[in-house]
Amino acid sequence: MKIESDCVSVLSGIRKNITIGSPICFKIENKDYKIDKLPDVTRPRPGHADLPGAIKFGHRDVRNILERASARETAARVAAGSLAKILLANFEINVLGYVKSIGGINSKKTIKNPEEIYKARNKSKVYCLDKAAESKMIEKIKKAKADGDSLGGVIEIIAFGVPAGLGSHVQWNLRLDGVLAGALMSIQAIKGVEIGLGFGFSKKFGSQVHDEIFYCEEEGVFNRTTNNAGGIEGGITNGEVLIARAAMKPIPTLMKPLRSVDIVTKKPVDASTERSDVCAVPAVSVVGESVVAFEIARCFMEKFGGDSLGEVTRNYKGYLEQSCRII
């Protein structure tokens, strides 16, 4: 929402720009909070939590549902993810999110250098790496706004520098691809997630898609010439770049609303309209980046954690030295 400011206050856990070991508490002010005097909302929007939430909790005013279901909740996840990215940067792990498509218009440009991705993304109004696609995306967003409609799209999250060995194959809830899929699917309006080649695997022979393994004598490391797995095999990172994508549906609030039913009168009506964006795909790329960074940081700390950054660094360096000669 453009009415909100990107301002975070740190209430605890950080002193003189360093964490001190106690719980970290952030405070984010929200201007759009005075709802008690607003009229009841009884016309649920198709595609939103309005109706199922009202049924579940027995509410006759779906505002009790829609406010908590709002994507404003993701501001806290972005704040937490920002802290995770600072931690990961100490170990040269860089997580970046950007837009791959909006409304069926696809970005065809590929950049493999994280610094160049960062620069290209931040120059774009829609966080897209492809300038030609960007202009078409903006035009389509303008048309959707004029038509009282909304647009979805696809985001891509890439994590550079992730070591082999995060996640585990030994239990279903420890598989990192499952963890990342759950984190991304928990973002409002995300309806699909894939890792690496994703759904493309279903169209190929195994001989065409599995990343062959090589060994570099000079560096003493295993490597691949392809990365269809997206950096994860068997729920464990394999040392390649981690790649995840998420598909976002169009926002369900439409200025030209769809048909609905008043939950009190049970009469046919147009769905309610609330203040809303036309396209939130660029914003969700920031959220996706943050939740992926948070989960990678969590797995990283589970494996290498200690009581200080120095201890974590020693654990990590020891692992890297050991993993080079473990086989």
Automatic annotation (TrEMBL):
Enzyme class: lyase
Coiled-coil zones: none
Cofactor dependency: FMNH2
Keywords: Amino-acid biosynthesis, Aromatic amino acid biosynthesis, FAD, Flavoprotein, FMN, Lyase, NADP
GO cellular component labels: cytosol
Record GO biological process: amino acid biosynthetic process; aromatic amino acid family biosynthetic process; chorismate biosynthetic process
Pfam families recorded: Chorismate_synt
Pathway noted in the entry: Metabolic intermediate biosynthesis; chorismate biosynthesis; chorismate from D-erythrose 4-phosphate and phosphoenolpyruvate: step 7/7
The protein's Enzyme Commission number: 4.2.3.5
Recorded GO MF terms: chorismate synthase activity; FMN binding
Family indicated by similarity: Belongs to the chorismate synthase family.
PANTHER family: CHORISMATE SYNTHASE (PTHR21085:SF0)
Name of the protein: Chorismate synthase
Organism of this sequence: Candidatus Scalindua japonica
Lineage per the UniProt record: Bacteria, Pseudomonadati, Planctomycetota, Candidatus Brocadiia, Candidatus Brocadiales
